[in-house]
Amino acid sequence: MTPRMRDLCSSHDQPPLEITLASMASSGSRCANIIQLLDWQVFKDHYVLVMERPTPSMDLEAFLQLNGGVLTEQTAQTIMGQAVHAANVCCYRGVFHRDIKLQNLLVNPNTLEVKLIDFGCGDYMMESAYSTFSGTEAYMPPEFYKRGCYHAKPATVYSLGVLLFTMLHGDFPTTYDLYYLEHDWSKFTLSQECCDLMWACLQQIPEHRILLGQMSYHDWFMLE
């Protein structure tokens, strides 16, 4: 018989980290923006996770392609708000996802409901710094290059900034883009509030970034 989630803590064998993190993220009151782990089983050389299957849905990368490679600011705002909420819930539940990106967000093209998926690169949340990186290089926090370490929440904020920029521009931010976000946001055909949030997330010094818990209260999310 396939073991259920309730057997996670009673199992004599430690389950793979991905299963544990997916279970932790799914625990407690249901978060609509995090994919739910329904069941799992560990075999000798692999393991299987049974997740909910939202329909209709596609990953955010495919959704961008469906919309010509970029999203309107209003659509990006709707998606971003849910991604930020999912990231906050994960951290609150002790899960550092570490790979928030276009391919790891499912979008319902009709309702724009978002679900965060794939905990395979994740780790347990901790206050101290991480000295190894697992995830996608384009979303890697710059302090890992410069200092050889990074902290969970500032790194999550940076990846969310890359996500937002990519939704609105169809490409990853360059040094040139960062310069204009700081010095001449009018170059971008976006609201000042949107540019301000991107710059607050993409600060190269992690201590200067907006706090993850403050992102949902940024002025951009108040625009209609």
Backbone structural class: alpha+beta
CATH architecture of the domain at 58-124 and 135-222: Orthogonal Bundle
Give the distance, in angstroms, between the N- and C-terminal Cα atoms. 51 Å
Average pLDDT score: 93
Radius of gyration: 18 Å
The side-by-side strand order for the widest beta sheet comes to 3-5-6
Number of strands: 7
Instruction: Output the CATH class name of the domain at 58-124 and 135-222.
Output: Mainly Alpha
Shape: globular
- What is the number of helical segments per DSSP (H or I, 4+ residues)? 7
Percent of residues in helical segments? 25-40%
CATH level 3 topology of the domain at 58-124 and 135-222: Transferase(Phosphotransferase), domain 1
Q: Which superfamily, in CATH terms, is the homologous superfamily of the domain at 58-124 and 135-222? A: Transferase(Phosphotransferase) domain 1
Q: Which percent band covers the strand fraction?
A: 5-15%
Q: Describe the main β-sheet briefly.
A: 3 strands, antiparallel
Give the low-pLDDT segments.
1-12
- What is the N-to-C order of secondary-structure elements (H for helix, E for strand)? HEEEHHEEEEHHHH
